[in-house]
Write a sequence for this structure.
């Protein structure tokens, strides 16, 4: 079958009904998922072009019919699709948002997942917890175990593609705590974040500082010195982009925003900074005080990489943890 162009409409037909699919890019198309026949899920599916010419016809089990399968039917895969998430801070995560993200990744089967860090909160070894009740709460190993059970295990049950985790300030807490408070016991192998989470066993890569994941783009957590903080969503990321002289996607601020800055004759050069937001349950963030005032936004990133071109998107996550991505509702 041939490839489809961006924006093409494709008709899927069986004997009694017609459904439409919408091509979202060179990589393929997405169903609108309005199939209603639950009794006989094996339908004869036919792709036609605008002039009703049959391009492809096949028997298809609709139980197995996901946007990804549709995409693979729709031609080339020149566009890489990357899902980026940040600041789950488990066990303080928004549980339904975590579940929605996992459902989305299972359904969408992106070419890559990048976790920008602060995946685990590690509340007990925080300097804010020193001498307080929180220092005697969940241990570092209990928190790491929680992250494996509630995020890594379920995610890997339905997605085996590339997954990279970046180092972060929360990820460094156990090692710093030990170095500062019990240096004689320090064991680099045991308390490094990647070791605590057994990332090798999950086939997950670990990048302590920076991951250059696409042409002209760097992913960083954003906690290292030298990046000036902005109160405005995206402002810190564009500061980092200026400093690194490349486009930056980062977390850490818990704000969600994209900022562009063009310079040069005819706006010949554009730098982009993206802050990914967070996936915490703000009610669990006791350090914000009783009223939980915070200029934070829940969000995830979806980036398309088409050769040297990178198209960044932010997908807002609602307060109940649901969101819409590629026209599909996830909860
Ligand atoms: Fe964070
Ligand atoms: Fe952080």
């Amino acid at each position: 079958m041939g490839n489809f162009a961006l924006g093409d409409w494709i008709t899927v037909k069986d004997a009694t009904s017609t459904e439409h699919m919408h091509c979202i890019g060179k990589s393929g198309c997405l169903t609108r998922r309005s199939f209603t026949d639950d009794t006989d899920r094996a339908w004869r599916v036919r792709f036609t072009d605008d002039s009703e010419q049959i391009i492809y016809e096949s028997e298809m089990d609709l139980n197995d019919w996901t946007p990804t399968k549709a995409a693979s039917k729709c031609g080339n895969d020149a566009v890489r699709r990357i899902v980026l998430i940040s600041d789950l801070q488990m066990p303080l995560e928004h549980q339904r948002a975590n579940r929605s993200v996992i459902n989305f990744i299972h359904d969408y089967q992106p070419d890559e997942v990048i976790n920008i860090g602060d995946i685990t909160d590690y509340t007990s070894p925080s300097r804010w917890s020193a001498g307080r009740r929180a220092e005697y709460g969940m241990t570092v190993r209990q928190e790491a175990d929680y992250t494996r059970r509630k995020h890594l295990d379920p995610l890997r049950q339905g997605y085996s593609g590339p997954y990279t985790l970046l180092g972060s300030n929360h990820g460094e807490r156990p090692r710093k705590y030990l170095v500062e408070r019990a240096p004689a016991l320090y064991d680099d192998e045991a308390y490094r974040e990647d070791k605590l989470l057994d990332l090798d066993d999950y086939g997950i890569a670990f990048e302590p500082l920076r991951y250059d994941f696409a042409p002209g783009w760097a992913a960083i957590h954003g906690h290292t010195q030298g990046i000036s903080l902005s109160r405005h969503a995206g402002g810190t990321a564009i500061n980092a982009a200026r400093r690194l002289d490349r486009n930056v996607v980062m977390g850490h601020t818990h704000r969600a925003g994209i900022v562009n800055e063009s310079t040069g004759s005819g706006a010949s050069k554009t730098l982009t900074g993206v802050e990914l937001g967070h996936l915490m349950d703000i009610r669990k963030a006791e350090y914000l005080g009783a009223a939980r005032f915070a200029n934070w936004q829940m969000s995830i990133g979806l980036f398309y990489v088409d050769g040297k071109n990178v198209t960044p998107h932010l997908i807002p996550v609602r307060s109940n943890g649901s969101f819409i991505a590629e026209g599909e509702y996830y909860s």
Residues 1-45, 59-77 have pLDDT under 50 and may be disordered. Residues 87, 89, 118, 252, 254 surround fe (ii) ion (ligand 1) (CB under 6 Å). The chain has two domains: 9-73, 79-330. Residues 163 and 260 are 27 Å apart (CA to CA).
